[in-house]
Amino acid sequence: MSSAKPITCIAAVAYEAGKPLTVEEIVVDPPKEHEVRVKIEYTAVCHTDAYTLSGVDPEGAFPSILGHEGAGVVESVGDKVTNVKAGDHVIALYTAECKECKFCTSNKTNLCSSVRATQGKGVMPDGTSRFHNQKGEELLHFMGCSTFSQYTVVADVSLVAIDPHAPLDTVCLLGCGVTTGYGAAIKTANVQKGDTVAVFGAGTVGLSVVQGAKVRGCSKIIVVDTNDQKKDWAHEFGATDFVNPSKDLKNGQSIVEKLAEMTDGGLDFTFDCTGNTDVMRDALEACHKGWGQSIIIGVAAAGKEISTRPFQLVTGRVWKGSAFGGIKGRSEMNGLVSDYLDGKLKVDEFITHKRAFSDINAAFEDLHHGDCLRTVLDLSK
Ligand SMILES: NC(=O)C1=CN([C@@H]2O[C@H](COP(=O)(O)OP(=O)(O)OC[C@H]3O[C@@H](n4cnc5c(N)ncnc54)[C@H](OP(=O)(O)O)[C@@H]3O)[C@@H](O)[C@H]2O)C=CC1
Ligand SMILES: N[C@@H](CCC(=O)N[C@@H](CSC=O)C(=O)NCC(=O)O)C(=O)O
Ligand SMILES: [Zn+2]
Ligand SMILES: [Zn+2]
């Protein structure tokens, strides 16, 4: 039996959709069997946190503790936990890896099913929460991580222990944005030397796709973004071209026509990193006839649907999706951490803002300004 006691700490609670988070004291219960309590040191804010807080996530539930791009140190473990121990440095995984379910053993996907159903309901695998506020009200978990709390409890399958030399204030970004985009390029799409690529949306996810395409030696890497402020970053991460569809198109020209003109008929691979369903259609239709593949990464609001003429698929274009870049967190995260430590994977470059955790609502504001890729929050402040 674990001898851990409840911990009182500071968390940012999402009480209501569309409202700022409330930074307050909460109680975090000890981890149960196959659970781990983690002291979160650093977390970043991902666009998906803002999406859920806005109220358009079909799985969004309140009150809850959001956050899923975090790193910290294991404080205590529940019974039957064997993959991590107190003191380990860890990254939280919103895509778990149990290594036993039919998804994990298939080698076809990273979408582990072990805890996904309860995770989507905001509870631990036993159906209960480990978080309460000072009034004794239950607070829900989020994406199996809830990193907007100084202490969180996660399933053991939702954690990976990492090299303790890796700085937690930067590798927290491997918990989502960087891994998602980079993995979508090198794993889901498996882009190759000489391929042509277009990336729609130059946030952390899109620029990480660019980084993957550059590492693989793609011949053309076109970034499409409506914000000119993203142009310098696009080139810094490896883009060969930047197109702003709100000002770089000829009269009457569509972005699909512009991209076809730039690539002799269309791209080998396109990636949606915006979550906009109209952009998803453009990304598919900008693919080359016969073989072009479009990868959807962006998360769209409840009720939104994608459409295109079936002829686009009949004539050989392929629509795919990618979650967490297709990366199996427990098996593959340490490869990314090593690449980062060896200077082969850019991570620090995405950190445009740093703030105290108590300033978390300002970090959500940062997301709406063109000068922000990621804000990293220090949970000790
Ligand atoms: N599938 C997965 O596993 C994951 C999915 N996501 C999703 O990926 C998406 C990107 O995340 P993130 O990089 O953090 O988000 P950001 O908001 O930082 O990046 C999105 C970028 O797209 C730009 N953009 C918006 N509309 C258009 C448009 N019509 N055409 C071209 N560019 C446009 C935005 O510009 P501006 O800033 O001016 O609006 C911004 O630069 C989100 O939908 C997020 O929820 C995130 C992580 C994991
Ligand atoms: N809750 C949403 C779906 C949200 C979604 O698609 N999430 C991505 C990760 S976004 C990270 O920033 C994902 O990995 N999806 C796969 C999964 O199993 O959730 C909804 O219900 O539409
Ligand atoms: Zn995310
Ligand atoms: Zn599994």
Tell me what you see in this structure.
The chain has 381 residues and is an alpha/beta fold. The chain folds into two domains: 7-175 and 346-378, Medium-chain alcohol dehydrogenases, catalytic domain (Quinone Oxidoreductase, Chain A, domain 1), CATH 3.90.180.10; 181-322, NAD(P)-binding Rossmann-like Domain (Rossmann fold), CATH 3.40.50.720. Helices cover 24% and strands 23% of the residues. The protein is built from eleven helices and 17 strands. It has helices at residues 47-54, 116-121, 168-171, 177-188, 204-215, 231-237, 255-262, 277-285, 310-314, 329-341, 360-366, and strands at 7-13, 22-28, 35-44, 69-77, 89-92, 131-133, 138-139, 151-155, 159-161, 196-200, 220-224, 241-243, 269-272, 293-296, 318-321, 351-356, 374-378. The strands form three sheets. Strands 3, 4, 5, 8, 9, 16 and 17 form a seven-stranded mixed β-sheet that branches. Strands 12-11-10-13-14-15 form a six-stranded parallel β-sheet, sandwiched between helices. The protein starts with 6 loop residues before the first strand and ends with a strand. Bound molecules: NADPH dihydro-nicotinamide-adenine-dinucleotide phosphate, the ligand N[C@@H](CCC(=O)N[C@@H](CSC=O)C(=O)NCC(=O)O)C(=O)O and zinc ion (2 copies). GO terms for molecular function: alcohol dehydrogenase (NAD+) activity; S-(hydroxymethyl)glutathione dehydrogenase (NAD+) activity; S-(hydroxymethyl)glutathione dehydrogenase (NADP+) activity; S-nitrosoglutathione reductase (NADH) activity; zinc ion binding. Its cofactor is Zn(2+). This is S-(hydroxymethyl)glutathione dehydrogenase.
